[in-house]
Amino acid sequence: MIKQIEETTSYLQNKGFENPEIGIILGTGLGQLLNEIEIITEASYNHIPNFPTATVELHKGKLIYGILEGKKVVVMQGRFHVYEGYTLQDVTYPVRIMEKLGIKTLLVSNAAGAINLNFKKGELMLIEDHINLQGSSPLAFKGVELLGERFTDMSAPYNAEINTKFKAIAKANNITLHEGVYASVVGPQLETRAEYRMLKIMGADAVGMSTVPEIIVANHLNLKVAAVSVLTDECDPNNLKPVNIAEIIEMAAKAEPNMITLFKELIKSL
Ligand code: HPA
């Protein structure tokens, strides 16, 4: 993997991805952040050597380099999911590349279902800890020890300083920002009522199908990380309605301005 990482990184450096400080993974509910970035250069996933081959859905996926709030950022527009058929190593390969390009901080957003029923759809949740239910680890491969500590510490995977800043920004801007535990499942099917009950008993406040693999690799690489979920549906096992994807997307869009404020103000403060 080391040779591939070097090849991918030099391709991007030759395209002008110069010393970004911060990496951002734009999930559902943060796409419009791109409008705030002064774009310097970009590369389609399809053209980047050794990047996972993009699916139809991801054909417009790209890596973007530019300036946001005075900081050099590299942004993933579109992420890879295990439910699309990628391996955990594929899903997290871009994190290894962003680190090699120079980032010290990784910021992630996603959409999630609220398991904690005190949290309402359309609200945001700062991820304070997580439960990996992906069935494996992105670090479970031969040679991982050449890229970082195999037995990566997970006692504090989310950066406390950044989270304190996020909370202060939310308060100053009258944004409801819950804090909680995010459980990451494979999907793509939604959960059964019994699974929602299980997740609650396990201590999850929210559930989604992404983010944890990237956070594990970011910790493997000693990056500072933080992640925010937009809660798009309320997962009440005693009153569960059929999933409504249109409503999930609508909720994510509704919360987007708040998510953008949080990310912009945070980046300004870093
Ligand atoms: N489950 C899993 N992933 C999700 C959900 C959910 O309820 N809502 C949004 N992403």
UniProtKB/TrEMBL annotation:
Keyword annotations: Glycosyltransferase, Transferase
Start and end residues of each Nucleoside phosphorylase domain: 21-268
Signal peptide residues on this chain, from the entry's feature table: none
GO biological process, one term: nucleoside metabolic process
GO CC terms: cytoplasm
Gene3D superfamilies, A to Z: Nucleoside phosphorylase domain (3.40.50.1580)
SUPFAM superfamilies to which the protein is assigned, alphabetical: Purine and uridine phosphorylases
Pathway: Purine metabolism; purine nucleoside salvage
Top enzyme category: transferase
Family, similarity comment: Belongs to the PNP/MTAP phosphorylase family.
Name of the featured protein: Purine nucleoside phosphorylase
Organism field: Siansivirga zeaxanthinifaciens CC-SAMT-1
